[in-house]
C-alpha cells in the first residue's frame, strides 16, 4: 500500500522555502501560553524518583483517566489515553472495521484530511457526504448514503475546517441512522473548548452504545507537542481498543500525562475563556478584511479556522502557492478537504499576525 503525504506538509515546506516574509496560517498550532500549572508540573517531574521515568499503565495514568471521566460523566474504565487525538481516532476507526459489519466510512464533506487517510490505511472505503451550506449536518444526506456496507460514521464538532458546531438533535439523528445499519459513530470533539456560541453539547450526553467520543489537550492547552489525547469507548469495545493501543504504542508518555493531570486540576476556567476571547477578536479582524476583499467566507461558530472564496481565484494548490509568493500569506487549498469546498482556501487563526495577514489579503484582492 502506498501512502500519500498530507498536503499540510507540502504547503508548509513551500512557505518555509519562499522568499520574503510569509505568515503561516496553515497549521493548527495554538500560539498562546500553555497553562501555568502545566509548566510547573513539568518542572516538578524532573525531580521525581527513577520509577516515575518508567512505563505508565498502557491505558493511561489512572488519575488522569479519572479526571477525564469526571468531566465527561463516564466510567474511568471506558477512557483510553492515547498519543494525541489522532491515535484515539485511529483506534475508533479500527474498532468499526474489525467488526465485519462493512468496510465503508461516511465522512462529512468538507472533511479533515487525516480521516480519509486513516480509513485507507485501515482498508476501508470513504464516502463523502455533503453537509449544509454552513457546515452543519445534513441528516437526510447521511441517511441516504448509509447502507449495509457502512461500518462507520465520522463526525467532528466544532468542525475543522468549517467551524460549524453540530446541533445535538442532529447528532442524535445521525446516531440513529448508524444504529439502523449496524455502524459505529466516532465524534471527534478536540475543539470542544473553542465553542464561540455557547451552544456546544458533547455527543456523550446521548449515551449510545454505538458512539465513540475522542478528544485531547493539544488545542485546549496549546500543547500540540505533548501528545495527550483520549477516547471514550462503549464497554463492548474498550477492551479491544486498549489492546490495539498497547500493540501499536505500548503506552503513552508519563511526563505529558502527569503534567496534563495537574493542569486539569489547577487551571481556572478563565484560561479557556481568554483563549476564546482572543480567537473571537481574531475572527472579527479577519472577516472584516475578507469583507474588504470582497470574499465569501464561513464565520466559525467554533474551532479556529476560516474558509474563504475569492472571485476568479479558486483554492487550488497553485493559487495557494501564489498567495505565499505574492501576498505573503500561507493557507490550505480547499481540495485538501474533499470536494465541497474545492474553490475555497482555509486559514488558521492561530497566529498573533492574524490581523496583518488579513490586511495583506485585503490589499492583494482589493487591487
TrEMBL record:
GO terms for biological process: amino acid metabolic process. InterPro entries: Aminotransferase_I/II_large, AspAT/PAT-like, NHTrfase_class1_PyrdxlP-BS, PyrdxlP-dep_Trfase, PyrdxlP-dep_Trfase_major. Homodimer. Its EC number is 2.6.1.-. The keyword Transmembrane helix does not apply. Keywords: Aminotransferase, Pyridoxal phosphate, Transferase. Its cofactor is pyridoxal 5'-phosphate. The keyword Transferase applies. Residues 21-361 form the Aminotransferase class I/classII large domain. This is Aminotransferase. It comes from Halorubrum saccharovorum DSM 1137. Belongs to the class-I pyridoxal-phosphate-dependent aminotransferase family.
